[in-house]
């Protein structure tokens, strides 16, 4: 089993090597173990993730890896590597310049190095057949997840935002074949499934990494349903597939370069803006919650423009800053106030 | 106050440095009047590349500009307010906020309106670099922007593929520059600029190496005013020429035992950018016979080093010293990429252990008694891994303290509290 710190990790190659990738996430509990390792101006997520390692909660992992992302998560990875005995660790130099055509051959080469490294570690050669099988399993998962998300477009979505988030996060921690099996079962049940609650205001949520289920539950208890997201614990994780081609590694590289971008890689053009707006339109979104992990520079750099863009398109936004734990009571009042703006005066009085 | 033990005097070439810097900012302001063009980008940009567009191409590098603003506390506060009013978080890079604030307010730190660049050209290694100029271009109404991704791993893992990735992007960048400026690119000018850059950054490393001497011929506060030239115009002949002159003068100071701090008794090093509005802290140290001999930041932000035959750090041998003749555009870009990837301050982006190793080397070779780490809220890039550096230095038995602050936002620096922390550290060192 291999723990990974960012969803730019090419899981297909791990699957092909017979390795189970497990995303390392935090526990949303206050902790006091990371202060000596990460300066407090870095995001709560990176500190929470490292805390889990230092507290021994991932002691079942055989290795760890990162695909180059923000400076914050890189520190969680490097401190983990220094302080937590791990049999295998790998830093994949995933390019940031994903809009340059030069990124494709470059990443293809980096993936070849990574594949070799895994072969050395496991003693197993990764064949084209192994890669084909892994690509198929992962593409199936992505396709099934998109089918589930399609149901969220309905005027009465048969699943909540919380359930959707749990589906994605569980897929980041379990075997994809098992997950596919469960998704197929869910897809059979969804046409008949009804939520015994009004849909209320249709919201989109987007921003930094977010697996704060307590928060999502609270929002959806206020007469709203989260119908779509742009999170790496959500749609961004599975939105595009690997398009098979003879050069398997180039096919995988292309998928990760072309995926909906993390803001740290979204330059010089802002590809996130049309993508987010399309999601909002396709899922008939009335308002957007913009959330950001405290000190998350990549999202801090994008949020003002994203906000402006959505509001110009007639989609109201509301901004909230997250920490390891969120003040649910305060946030409830604020979200309620936001939701009230969608109600007609007659609804209010 | 300790009695002076060594002779001391001001640098003879001090005013040359001041004039070069003033001329740099003036040139950018007046570039259009002189028929030239302007580009802006990070101090780590491949500044030699736009040089191929002509001799009348002037740059404004963002970080030193941000530091200049930081020194003027009132203007910096205005810049921060303006940036925050646009919705940007106050914990973002302080230089970037000073720079954006200047655009929003349309005020140049040197007076007058903020001079808009004709194009933006930068590199990306920390989360903020490309985004800085993406936003700057938007705030300026759509200035063309190109960024080279240089985050290809540490120098000790370098290979042809990684260098090729940078070279090919830079080749694309040249074609892009020709398009956005309408100018024809001159490879000879590029080649000359690459030679200049290698010479300038190696010379700066040599100057830093001379500070191994006891007494130190330079103190860090003075070095801030000298290294800055290589963050402004490392590719220009006048920069390399100035460093040659400075190197000769510093050599003489070593021979003649001319100290930066006459009462030098203890030697410390710092880390990351200083809180620019509070450099008096460095003078405060001197009261107790403590000289800051520099830092990995001052040395390796632009200085290029190599391990010499005796195992110590010294200036990297330049391509011209090795007799390498650069003949083509691609070769020039390859030399430049390979040279730049060995920059000490690029290594910690992949591992704090690499930085800790370089810091221990400085402690050893520069005879440092203690380390003062600036936990700099203004720069996540250079503060990355700093807590691990602290642990590693401690493990090596090196006295180390940290103080928290911000290089460019005075709201996050408390001088009196920091002095108290420094006092305690000086007591540990025996200096107080």
Helix/strand layout:
The complex is a heterodimer of chains A (349) and B (432).
Chain A: E1 2-4, H1 11-16, E2 21-23, H2 44-54, E3 63-67, H3 71-83, E4 88-92, H4 103-122, H5 128-151, H6 161-171, H7 176-189, E5 201-207, H8 213-220, E6 224-230, H9 235-238, H10 248-258, H11 272-282, E7 287-293, H12 297-312, E8 317-322, H13 328-340, H14 345-348
Parallel strand pairs in A: 1-2, 1-3, 3-4, 5-6, 5-7, 7-8
Chain B: E1 7-8, H1 14-30, E2 37-41, E3 57-61, H2 62-71, H3 73-85, H4 94-105, E4 119-124, H5 129-139, E5 145-149, H6 160-181, H7 187-210, H8 220-233, H9 237-255, E6 258-259, E7 266-271, H10 280-286, E8 290-295, H11 296-300, E9 305-307, E10 313-315, H12 329-341, H13 352-365, E11 370-376, H14 380-383, H15 386-395, E12 400-405, H16 415-429
Parallel strand pairs in B: 1-6, 2-3, 2-4, 4-5, 7-8, 7-11, 11-12
Antiparallel strand pairs in B: 9-10
Commentary on this structure:
- The complex is a heterodimer of chains A (349) and B (432).
- The longest helix of chain A is centred in the middle third of the chain and has 24 residues, at 128-151.
- In chain A, helix 2 (44-54) runs parallel beside helix 3, helix 6 (161-171) packs antiparallel against helix 8 (213-220) and helix 8 packs parallel to helix 13.
- Chain A starts with a strand and ends with a helix.
- Chain A has helices spanning 11-16, 44-54, 71-83, 103-122, 128-151, 161-171, 176-189, 213-220, 235-238, 248-258, 272-282, 297-312, 328-340, 345-348, and strands spanning 2-4, 21-23, 63-67, 88-92, 201-207, 224-230, 287-293, 317-322.
- Chain A has 349 residues and is of the alpha/beta class.
- Chain A contains 14 helices and 8 strands.
- Chain B has one domain (7-429).
- Chain B has 432 residues and is of the alpha/beta class.
- In chain B, helix 1 (14-30) runs parallel beside helix 8 (220-233), helix 2 (62-71) packs across helix 4 (94-105) and helix 13 (352-365) packs across helix 15.
- Chain B is globular and about 60 Å long.
- In chain B, a hairpin with a 5-residue loop joins strand 9 and strand 10.
- In chain B, 57% of the residues are buried.
- Chains A and B meet through helix 3, helix 4 and helix 12 of A and helix 5, strand 5, helix 6, helix 14 and helix 15 of B.
């Amino acid at each position: 089993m291999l723990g990974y710190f960012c969803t730019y990790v090419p899981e297909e190659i791990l699957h092909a090597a017979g390795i189970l990738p497990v995303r390392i996430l935090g526990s949303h509990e206050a902790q006091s173990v990371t202060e000596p390792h990460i300066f407090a101006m870095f995001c709560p997520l990176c500190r929470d993730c490292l805390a889990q390692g230092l507290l021994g909660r991932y002691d079942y992992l055989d290795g760890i890896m990162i695909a180059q992302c923000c400076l914050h998560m890189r520190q969680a990875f490097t401190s983990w590597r220094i302080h937590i005995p791990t049999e295998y660790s790998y830093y994949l130099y995933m390019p940031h310049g994903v809009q340059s055509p030069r990124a494709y051959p470059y990443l293809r080469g980096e993936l070849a190095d990574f594949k070799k490294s895994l072969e050395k570690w496991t003693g197993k050669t990764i064949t084209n057949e192994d890669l084909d099988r892994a690509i198929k399993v992962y593409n199936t998962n992505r396709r099934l997840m998109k089918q589930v998300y399609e149901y969220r477009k309905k005027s009465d979505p048969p699943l909540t935002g919380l359930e959707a988030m749990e589906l994605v996060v569980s897929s980041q921690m379990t075997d994809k074949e098992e997950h596919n099996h469960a998704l197929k079962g869910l897809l059979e049940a969804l046409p008949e499934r009804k939520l015994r609650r009004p849909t209320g205001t249709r919201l989109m949520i987007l921003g930094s990494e977010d697996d704060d289920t307590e928060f999502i539950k609270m929002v959806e208890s206020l007469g709203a349903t989260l119908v779509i997201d742009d999170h790496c614990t959500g749609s961004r994780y599975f939105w595009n597939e690997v398009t098979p081609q003879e050069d398997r590694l180039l096919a995988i590289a292309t998928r990760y370069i072309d995926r909906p971008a993390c803001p740290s890689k979204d330059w010089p053009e802002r590809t996130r803006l049309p993508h987010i707006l399309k999601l909002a339109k396709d899922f008939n979104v009335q308002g957007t919650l913009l959330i950001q992990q405290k000190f998350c520079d990549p999202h801090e750099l994008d949020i003002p423009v994203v906000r402006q863009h959505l509001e110009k398109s007639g989609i109201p936004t509301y901004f909230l800053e997250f920490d390891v734990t969120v003040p649910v009571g305060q946030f409830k009042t604020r979200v309620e106030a936001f939701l009230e703006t969608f109600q007609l005066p007659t609804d209010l009085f | 106050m300790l009695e002076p033990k060594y002779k001391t005097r001001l640098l003879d070439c001090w005013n040359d440095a001041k004039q070069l810097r003033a001329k740099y900012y003036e040139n950018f302001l007046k570039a259009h009047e002189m028929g030239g063009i302007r580009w802006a980008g990070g101090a780590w940009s491949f500044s030699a590349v736009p040089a191929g567009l002509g001799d009348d191409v002037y740059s404004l590098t963002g970080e030193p500009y941000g530091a200049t603003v930081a020194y003027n506390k009132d203007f910096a506060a205005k810049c921060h307010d303006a940036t925050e009013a646009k919705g940007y978080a106050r914990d973002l890079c302080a230089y970037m906020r000073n720079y954006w604030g200047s655009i929003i307010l349309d005020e140049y730190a040197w007076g007058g309106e903020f001079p808009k660049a004709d194009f933006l050209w930068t590199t990306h290694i920390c989360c903020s670099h490309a985004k800085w100029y993406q936003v700057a271009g938007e705030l300026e109404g759509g200035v063309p922007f190109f960024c080279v991704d240089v985050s290809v791993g540490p120098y000790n893992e370098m290979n042809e593929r990684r260098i090729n990735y940078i070279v090919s992007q830079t080749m694309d960048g040249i074609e892009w520059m020709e398009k956005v400026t309408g100018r024809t690119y001159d490879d000879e000018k590029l080649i000359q600029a690459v030679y200049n850059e290698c010479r300038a950054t190696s010379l700066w490393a040599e100057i830093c190496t001379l500070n191994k001497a006891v007494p130190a011929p330079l103190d860090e506060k003075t070095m801030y005013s000298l290294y800055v030239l290589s963050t402004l115009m490392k590719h220009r002949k006048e920069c390399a020429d100035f460093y040659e002159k400075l190197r000769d003068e510093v050599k003489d100071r070593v021979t003649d035992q001319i100290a930066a701090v006459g009462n030098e008794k203890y030697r410390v090093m710092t880390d990351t950018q200083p809180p620019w509005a509070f450099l008096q802290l460095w003078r405060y140290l001197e009261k107790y016979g403590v000289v800051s001999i520099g830092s990995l930041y001052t040395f390796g932000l632009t200085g290029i080093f190599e391990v010499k035959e005796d195992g110590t750090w010294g200036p990297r041998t330049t391509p011209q010293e090795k007799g390498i003749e650069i003949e083509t555009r691609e070769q020039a870009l390859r030399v430049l990429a390979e040279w730049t990837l060995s920059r000490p301050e690029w290594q910690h982006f992949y591992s704090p252990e690499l930085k800790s190793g370089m810091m221990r080397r400085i402690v050893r070779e520069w005879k440092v008694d203690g380390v003062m780490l600036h936990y700099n809220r203004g720069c996540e890039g250079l503060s990355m891994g700093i807590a691990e550096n602290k642990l590693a230095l401690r493990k090596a038995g090196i006295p180390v303290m940290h103080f928290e602050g911000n290089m460019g936002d005075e709201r996050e620096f408390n001088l009196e509290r920091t002095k108290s922390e420094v006092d305690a550290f000086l007591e540990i060192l025996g200096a107080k």
